Amino acid sequence: MSAQLRSVMPAVPPSAGVAAPTPFKVYTQRDLERIEALSRLTPEQRFEMKVVSSVLPFRVNQYVIDELIDWKNVPDDPMFQLTFPQRGMLAPEHYDRIAELVRSGAGKEEMERAVGAVRHELNPHPADQMALNMPRDEHGNRLEGMQHKYRETVLFFPSQGQTCHSYCTFCFRWAQFVGDKELRIAASEAETLHAYLRQHTEVTDLLFTGGDPMVMKTRHLRDYLEPMLAPEYDHIQTIRIGTKALTFWPHRFLDAEDADDLIRLLERMVDGGKHVAIMAHYNHWKELDTDVARAAIRRVRATGAVIRAQGPLIAHINDDPAVWARLWRDEVKLGIVPYYMFVERDTGARNYFEVPLVRAWEIYREAMQQVSGLARTARGPSMSASPGKVEVQGVTEIGGEKVFVLRFIQGRNPEWVQRPFFAKFDPEATWFDDLEPAFGEEKWFWEDEYAAIREEKLGQAA
Asked: Which end of the chain is more exposed for a tag (fewer CB within 10 A), N or C?
């Protein structure tokens, strides 16, 4: 939307029709006993939360507690499952190890050693993201806080955005939030990012991620974004901002201290010729169902930015085609573009949240059958594996063999993209690494080339 058109639009207060904001109040693991709503749970349930949150990150705010969770339906409520720790998120042996230390009042050092050992068994950096995805400068130095896995897209992890308004219990970036510097990806140098982009004109898309960039003050975000309007960055066509703020703190876009500054910044980027895409993470239609959430969506869309919605299919939260169908229908109604259905990654609490690939495909297919063409823009189920984004296109029988039909939506080599390939059918498989090539093939068509790419990257890191 042009600045001229916006100037003649009737002025509407950003929070028109919305109740006064709940003060932004955050609770972490140390504050579990202070969350009044948890008094409804048994002492055993509260103890289990304390144990699990000693290993996996926990952060929730008052808006989520008051507006999104149906406390009459706890612990089964999907938004409760999304934000509060559950015993099943740790393997029994891990849970028992930490629970015993909590019961015995173990000292800080002993607890930290045990917790650290458990975390390192949870695959904190899946898909080779630390080893293979981080780019290097002209001197061979690794550029911390950036990833450049696919030719057209660079991911940037600003240090000011390395937290979230609340944490998703399934988050594949959980290692960012546990206070271990060795597990973090973050950068604070805007010039490092800008210099890299000037040198790599093949990049068209810049994705700000985290954590959540929308926890940053607008002035920090402006330092990263506004230089992109200079002519030397004309090759950067799209600015993407990955965020859960539209769910966890929609007031960020309405009446937060610098909300107006943020809206003006988005307008400037759009008016400057950039496609601004807010990559919103939605897991359940409940996240769209409050007045303040819908007001925030309207205000963001009025800047000319496009909101695209993505999220994983996860047990206990949205492993139901009716949930996805309603989510996609509500998104389209609100002007949001359904973008991706992901498969839960092989990290953290995956055993609690994972769904067999065949069931994921069935849920995707059955949900698609319930929506119009405008909602069928959502791709999936998609696995962000080390070789690339692999989509499960279906299950079929070829030459008497039951197989998964797969394709790359993105690949480390763009030549792999959109080329179909086949895996043996495995009803128990939950991730790409569980699959084997079909028809007696010993290797995937891309396997030798991927091995060479991996060896070269690891050699550079040595």
From this structure: C
Q: What is the DSSP letter of 417?
A: B
| Token reading at 44 | 């055993």
Two structure tokens written together for 440: 């007696």
Instruction: Mention every residue, 6+ apart, whose C-beta is less than 8 A from residue 20.
Output: none
Q: How far apart are CA 19 and CA 34, in angstroms?
A: 25
The answer as to whether 22 is a domain residue is yes
Residue 426 lies in a domain: no
Residue 272 falls within a domain, yes or no?
A: no
**In what side-by-side order are the strands of the sheet with 146-150?**
146-150, 153-156, 205-208, 238-243, 275-281, 306-313, 337-343, 379-384, 388-398, 401-411, 420-424
User: How do beta strands 59-61 and 26-28 pair?
Assistant: antiparallel
- 461 versus 57: which is more confidently predicted? 57
Distance CA 340, CA 199 (A): 30
Domain membership of residue 32 as a residue range: 3-120
The pLDDT tens digits of the residues spanning 398-443 come to 999 999 999 999 999 999 999 999 999 999 999 999 999 999 999 9
Number of compact structural domains in the chain: 1
* Nearest alpha-carbon partner for 326 in 362, 284, 360: 284
State which amino acid sits at residue 189.
Answer: E
Q: Is the preceding peptide bond at 21 cis, omega within 30 degrees of 0?
A: no
